[in-house]
Each structure stands twice: as structure tokens, then as C-alpha cells.
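Sample 1 of the test manifest.
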Amino acid sequence: MPNQKQVDADVVIVGAGLSGMIAARAVLAAGLTPVVLEADERVGGRILTEEVMPGLPVELGAQWIGDTHERMFALADELGVETYPQFEDGETSYDLVGAGVLRENEFHARFGDELAELERVLRRLDEMATEVPVDAPWLAPRAAEWDSITAGAWYDAQGLSPVARTLVEICTVGILAVPTAEVSFLHLLFTIQTCGVTSELFAESEGGAQTTRFVGGTSEIPNRLAALIADHIVLRVPVQLIEHSPGGVSVHCRGGLVARGRRVIVAISPTLAGRIMYDPPLSGVRDQLTQRLPNGSAMKAFFVYDEPFWRTDGFNGQLISDVGPARMSNDTCIPGDDHGVILMFLEGEQARTFGRLPEEERRAALTAELVRHYGSKAAHPELYVDGEWSDRQWTRGCYNVNLGPHVWTAYGPALSAPIGVIHWASTDTATYWSAYMEGAVDAGERAAAEVIAALAG
Amino acid sequence: MPNQKQVDADVVIVGAGLSGMIAARAVLAAGLTPVVLEADERVGGRILTEEVMPGLPVELGAQWIGDTHERMFALADELGVETYPQFEDGETSYDLVGAGVLRENEFHARFGDELAELERVLRRLDEMATEVPVDAPWLAPRAAEWDSITAGAWYDAQGLSPVARTLVEICTVGILAVPTAEVSFLHLLFTIQTCGVTSELFAESEGGAQTTRFVGGTSEIPNRLAALIADHIVLRVPVQLIEHSPGGVSVHCRGGLVARGRRVIVAISPTLAGRIMYDPPLSGVRDQLTQRLPNGSAMKAFFVYDEPFWRTDGFNGQLISDVGPARMSNDTCIPGDDHGVILMFLEGEQARTFGRLPEEERRAALTAELVRHYGSKAAHPELYVDGEWSDRQWTRGCYNVNLGPHVWTAYGPALSAPIGVIHWASTDTATYWSAYMEGAVDAGERAAAEVIAALAG
């Protein structure tokens, strides 16, 4: 699209992440004209593949889909993006509560009772989660009670052994990317319910949210989607102001572009949506909600070796540890490429503290942890690359927003309810796999359906 | 100042609240030229006096100063604004934990042990608060521990009787304007320490933060201050973008005005400061901090009667109750005016719930509570007026920002540290009476001193 000062469309969409582009495609399919305004110089939002060596893409952002992510499987199929299964063969390596490095079979043998105890707590979470309506968590029969405590406080009250408490913290922070002491227990239950059951979320092996990857990298999805609607996307136009009335919207961008339309879909993280100026201003309830939706802190660090030597030793590349900066890792080798690639996750507190160190210090600490688990071969990677999301101006944190105590019950209805001609997308507003790519598609489709129905009416 | 497209100054100041104007005055006194950019059509920010009848001003915003607010006393003196003491004669009326309406002497007789117990807890808070450095709460010896729990959880753990627990919640919410379950215990201790002791904060009678009022209304302070620097204030110019480099700043406003200067002081609530676009973008740490500083919810409701009939019955106009929408009230009559004026406070949960009701319903519920305490004369006010702050576009909540668990320890240093040529003011960044007018002056003076020193260097 040429660099023009005004553009007219039926539907203006803020953000060319997955959610916004899915909405644009649906709008287009309904015979309406969308225009997608993207602040960044690229599409994809929280999806970001970087080719660190020829033929070796690593995922600095969203990476996997799971077996129940039917929208994403359909989308990949439609876009011609092939998938392959996450490598899972071998044992996980543990080092928790001072027990030292233990292979999976040793760990299970030593902590069998504690793991059974944790399993009972997870089943209890699953049962409680079924009482939370995903489209209105504040209507759960025990919403007031569950929203008045943190997930951490609930875990603390279960009388778990140290290893079980540590393990459930690591698994939960692996999803929320903030310590459980910062998140409402109701929000944890909501998150579980949007995904099905805890085993989907926390699964280390079969099933779960991380079973499948995309050939060529996850960015193939947004890139191919963007190619289909290329005439309707404008890059490098940060939105500053949305003027809205029943008659339509004028969306003003830095640089002077004004996009006019009949409706607008704001398809960015709600905390960023709260930074846009609205005229007339939005209600205090909506505004105070967006003051209470902080993004998590997540950092992915990749070590590339000449071969996946840990496989030879019977390891699957996953570690679970409370020692080093990373609490978890994954084997992220690429089929057809000989390199060994280990991804280490820094989430929540670890991303905050180690993410602020000089890269060399962070890398050294992570390397030491890999050496402890996988031996001296881990000491000499060919390449190291990491990336933190809060520094990225148009994202400002990952994986998603987290609601603290009282936010769902006091402000929840304002999260996705349209305000006049303004609609809200982004995975943070999804009711199915919220925070995941599947949720981005869910929310984009829902917002588009709202707009299409309104404009047809 | 004429409506122009560009203005040049030494120091650009964002926000004509008390903090920004104090900074502007200090900058001017140092021989430098300030320009203050105010989004609203008035100065004063969270100070807002409204004359509801001729000669009868009510304070929809900041109202009182306390005996230790030396900067505010000096400022009032300098500006020629007279002060008068808050009316305190008579008894407070209580209705807590189902005890029914009790006069102060009855309440103290019945709950003497519980009040002594509460007193012990407050003394303990005072002791702990002394360990919190007000300019670096994260350096408190027990910062990690205190920042990992909420103020509410700490109160819950003290084994308080129901009446003591209820009373301390009401007093604390009266300051924080959010439930204690949402606020870090470290933040509560910081707040206490910036004010001295809990008796300063919570005092119902002598001393404390609410001893003194301003003749003509609190707005006399910002209005007279604005008159002194009128040539340097531009109204109705919401700031959208701050371009900054070591060489200076260009501050871009909605409507097209660009203010250029050598330094900028952002003198608005940190959550609103986070909504401005910065180029180059600020660090992830600063950004994630501003995602975690929600404003409280506060609403003041005024009932104006033909006379202060409660005084005749020996009441001081203060009620403390867990029954009606308001947890507390005050006699806010004006000397020289015959009307009786009662102010009822809705804070935190009460502001959220009742603030969203139609005014008639809220007024009816508040009236019923006044009648229970002060009899049938309370049923027929001449006038009722209320105001909630989250709906106000350029404030978005009161009285100030509150830090949840982990925010001080993970992000605290970013609250007021300058970033290049950008400096931060507003009472939320103060280290003395933060959240009060006194803190606004403290922060404005501190930011101005930073800038003056930098420009002299």
C-alpha cells in the first residue's frame, strides 16, 4: 500500500499479529474491506522466527501447537505449512530442592510419593476449573473467594512437599511467566479451563500444548497469512488516537496516516490497547482494567551445538531445575539439520533478574547449568542467541497478560465487550487457549464475527 | 500563550498538576524557561474544587493537609491562601461487625480490648516501617519477604478480632483506595514510612494528614500557582510522543503542538506516563513497571443540608461503618456558611461497585446510611453531588498508584530514576508523603533540582 495520508476501509484493525490478520481475513471473506495498521516493521507480533544459521530457524516467540489446537492445524494446512512432532525420546533431567542432578527414572523413583501427591492437587485444580465459565469467570459460583487469593497462596495452602511445591511453581510459571504470588487463583483456573485440563498445560510429554512445530519456523504462519492480505496491511504506523462515534472511526497514526472505517478491531495486548488515546474517552472501568493487565516476562535462550549429543546419552533435552537461571529447557533441533539445539526458558523472576544482566553473564550461567546436566560437551556451543520481550516496544512482555486478585471480578466484563464501534481481539481476550496462538485465532475470529454481524445488521 | 505549532523552552513539563507547576516555578526561579503542557482544560490535576452553591466550595479531589506537611503550609502562606482547622468536636459514630450504630464512647467501652490489640499491631507496623528506606524500599533488609505478601495477608496473619481486622482494613483502604489484598505489604510499610507513623495516616482526630483545610477551596493553591507562571502553561494539549536524545527533547501533542527543550519532566501519574510513546523506546524494566502501577478507585459524595444538625446531637460528622456504601465520612462545613455538609468516602471496592450504579441508587444507599447514624433529618439534603476519578480521562483513578507484590523489588528503581534527559515527578514518585499534595511538591522540587543541576553542569 502506498504511503498515503488517508485510507478508507470498512474495518480498521490495529495490529498485524496473528489475531489481527485472522480478523482481517475473515472480514475480507465477508465482502468487507479491512485495513491492518501495524506499528512494527514486520507482521507476526509475538511470533518471531530468526534464522541464526542458514537453514536453522529458532523461535524467539511462539513455537509450538498442541493436539487440541484445531484452528491452528487447519490454518497451517490451509497455508501449506507442514508440521512435525516435537522430539520427545529419552529422559528428562531434574535438579530440584537440592537433590542434585537426577535422570527421570531416578527422580521418579526417589520422589514417587511426592509426584502422586502433586497429581492429586492437579486433579483438584482440574475439577475446580470446570466451575469457571471461560466467557465470564466472574460468574463462577466461588469467583469471589477464588479471586481474593493468589495462585501461589492456594498452592502454599495445599501442604505440598517441597519438591511438589517447587515443581508446580515451575510448571505454572512456565505458562504465566510471572510468579504465582502475582496472579489470582481464579485466573489460574480460568487459564486451565480455556485449555481443558492441567495435563494439557503442564504435560512434559504426550499431549499438551507443545507437541507440534512448523517446518520453516512459526513465522511461516503469519508471513503466509500476510501475503494473502498484503494489500490491506500498512507497516510502521503506530496508532496514537482512535476517534469513534456510532458513524465510524478515524484511527490516527504516528507519521500522519489516518485510517477511517465503520468499525475498529484493536488486536493488540490489552495493556498496549490502554495506551491508545480514545475520543471520546473510554469508561473508567475499561481504563482501570487496562491498568491491571501486566504482561509477563519471558526470555528464550538458544544454544546451538554441532550435534545433539544429549540424545546419545539418552536425554530428551528437557531439564527441570531450580538451580540455574533457566527452570526448563527443550530440544529444539530442526529435522534435516545436523545441529543440536537446546532452548532454555527464563520466565518470571528469572527473566527479570537474568534478563537484565550483560548477555555474557547470562550465557555463562546458563552454560554452567547445561554442563551440570549434559556434561562438558555443553560448554562449547557454536552459537548462542537470546531474546527478551519486554524490551520490544510493540509487545512489552510475554506470553500474555495476567490478572491479579480482584481483577476478573471487579473489571472482567470490560476485557472483550465491544464499546460502541470498538471491538477487542488478541489472544489475551480469547476463551479457548488464551495466551496461545490458538487463542489468537479464536479471538480474531470472534471479533471479526462481531463486526460482520454489526455491519450486516 | 497563543495557539502556536512550536514552542521552545529549556524544560518541557508534562502535566499542570501541583507537582508539574511546582517544578515549573523552581525551573523559572533558576533562570531557566519552562513550558507546562496540560492535557485537560484546567490546571490542578487531582485537586478539584467545585462551587456547588454560591460561597460553598466542595472538594472532589485533594482536600486536607496535615501538621507535618511543611511544604504545603509554606506554599499556602506564600500564595496568600488562608487555612482553617478541620472540625473535630463531638463523637464519631460507628457501626461495625453487626454491632449496630454506636456512639464513640459506647464503641470504645464495648471494644476496648480489641482497640488495644489493634493499637499493638499499628505500633508493630510503625517499627517495621522504620526499616524501609523511602528512597529505595527494595533495600529494606526484609524487602524480599515483605514484598512477597500482600498487606491483607499480613493483617490476616495477626490473629486480630473481627472488629480490629475490619477497622484496620477501613483505615488502610482509606489511604490506598484499593483492598489490602491487592497491595504489597512492603508498599504499605513504604507508605507509612513516607508519612512518619500510622497515627499520622490513620488518625481520626488530632494530628494526622487531615487537620487543615484551605479557605476558598484547595483549588486556590493550583490556581494561584498557575497565575504566577501563566505565560508558561498551555492547556488542552495531551502529550502523545516524546522524542529524546542527549541533545534535548521534542514533545508532540495532539493537535500538532511540538514543544522543544533540553530536558523534560513528566509530572503525571506513572501509569499515564507509560501511555506516552517514547522515541527511542524506554527499557523493558521501566515499561513493565508502568504496567504494574494501577491507580486506586476513590469517590467522594457530598450531602448539603440547611444546617449541620449532627453537631447539635454531639456528633463530629465522622462515621466508620462496614454497612453502607461509604466506610467513612467527614464534616466538611465551610466556616461562615450556615449549611451542613457531610462528605462520604467510597474507596476501593465500594467505589468500584457503587460508583457504577446510577447516581440515584448510590445516593439512596448513602442517604439510608446517614439516616441510620444521624436520624431522619439526614433524609432530605438540599443538594447531592459526587464524583469518581477513574472516569476522568487525564487522571484515571485516585488517590495514587499502588504497588502489588514483587513490584518494588523487581521494578522499583525505575520509578523515579531519570532516563537520559527524561525526569519523573508526580506525588506517586515522592519519598515524603507520597500520594498527598505534600508529596506532589516534594517530587516536583526533586525533579526540578535534578534538571537544574544537569543544565548547570
